[in-house]
Write a structure and sequence with these properties.
The complex is a heterodimer of chains A (234) and B (89). With 234 residues, chain A is α/β, with parallel strands linked by helices. In chain A, 25% of the residues lie in helices and 24% in strands. Chain A has a single domain, classed as 3-Layer(aba) Sandwich (Rossmann fold). Chain A contains five helices and eleven strands. In chain A, strand 1, helix 1 and strand 2 form a beta-alpha-beta unit. The relative contact order of chain A is 0.17. By secondary structure, chain B is α+β, with helices and mostly antiparallel strands. Helices cover 31% and strands 33% of the residues of chain B. Classes of the chains: A alpha/beta (234), B alpha+beta (89). Chains A and B meet through loops of A and helix 1 of B.
Chain lengths: 234, 89
């Protein structure tokens, strides 16, 4: 399975994603410079974390207009797999590929720590190999992870089963005390209606190597490759 | 013609502004108890070239919708739009 990791000016998790995929997931992974316009050779596009364009104006607001994004949008609309992590999630929101927006954390602090995530749905290729309700330990590192959407939008998300991950406690209970940033309904990750686009604030690429304390992030990448295999043979 | 536009971007009323709340609390600590609420926003000054004031206004609104403002969480006001004389430019 061929992965492409987009590199925007200011991306800083691009090498982490590249390394995690290369080491543990698939030997075929390449960087895609943000000025590139050819994406058709990839099976999954990764928008990595970081501070694209220095977070100027709003997080992800300028990266959304990088030349590569028109093609990422076309690629995603054609059903291609796209995963946006942290700043990548923010770019997906700004580009309109996913609904809602990010506000500053209610604590007004950059939060960098391991949190626990509840897997809300396994209907996406990114979570198909997980169990519904499975709790993952994955680190977050962000200042704008306070997910917001209006009431109508939230109803849509729930109706279409688009909430993929919620911040929870170690037992999987979703509560205010397990919410690190003020995010609506503890939302940590959502997908598109079709399920082929995932945006998530936590960093699965930072927990693929057993040396780093958790390999729960690897479960997400492995789910992608397993789902892709099934799609190929179907 | 050269124009200058002033745009103020703020979070929508329905969206909690934690920075504004923190600033309000700081003011209360300073005993400015008559301060009821504070909302923080952004000020954008745009210089542009357009054939008429009408076109200048249209262009500013377009840039607000497309880039300067995220209408999911923010709202904006075009506070001023004025021609700039050659001398000032």
């Amino acid at each position: 399975m061929r992965f492409g990791v987009v590199v925007f000016p200011g991306s800083n998790c691009d090498y982490d994603c590249y390394f995690a995929i290369k080491q543990w997931v698939s030997s075929s992974v390449e960087f895609i410079w943000h000025k590139s316009t050819r994406l058709n050779t990839y099976d999954c596009i990764v928008l990595p974390g970081g501070f694209s364009y220095g977070d100027y104006l709003r997080t992800g607001a300028i990266a959304r207009f990088s030349p590569v994004m028109d093609n990422v949008i076309k690629y995603a609309e054609n059903g291609g797999l796209v995963i946006g992590i942290c700043n990548g999630f923010q770019i997906l929101l700004e580009s309109g590929l996913l609904p809602g927006a990010m506000l500053r954390n209610t604590s007004l602090r950059f939060v960098c720590k391991y949190i626990t995530l509840r897997t809300v749905t396994t209907r996406t290729p990114f979570t198909a190999s997980l169990k519904k309700g499975e709790v993952l330990s994955v680190p977050i590192a962000h200042n704008e992870g306070n997910y917001y959407i209006d009431e109508k939008g939230l109803e849509e998300l729930q109706k279409n089963s688009q909430i993929v991950f919620q911040y929870c406690d170690a037992d999987g209970a979703v509560s205010d005390s397990s919410n690190p940033n003020g995010s609506l309904l503890n939302i940590a990750g959502i997908c598109s209606k079709r399920g082929n686009i995932l945006g998530m604030m936590p960093h699965p690429e930072r927990c693929c190597d057993p040396l780093l304390g958790s390999i729960d992030g690897l479960k997400i990448f492995q789910s992608i490759t397993e789902s892709f295999k099934k799609m190929q043979t179907a | 013609m050269k124009f200058k536009a002033a745009v103020v971007v703020t979070l929508k009323e329905s969206v909690l502004d934690p920075q504004g709340v923190t600033i309000k609390e700081a003011l209360h600590h300073m005993r400015y108890n008559q301060i009821e609420s504070v909302r923080l926003g952004k000020f954008v000054e745009i210089s542009l070239d357009a054939s008429s004031a009408e076109n200048a206004e249209k262009l500013v609104h377009e840039t607000c919708r497309k880039l300067l403002v995220n209408q999911v969480i923010e709202t904006y006001k075009l506070q001023a739009l004025s021609p700039v004389s050659q001398k000032e430019a």
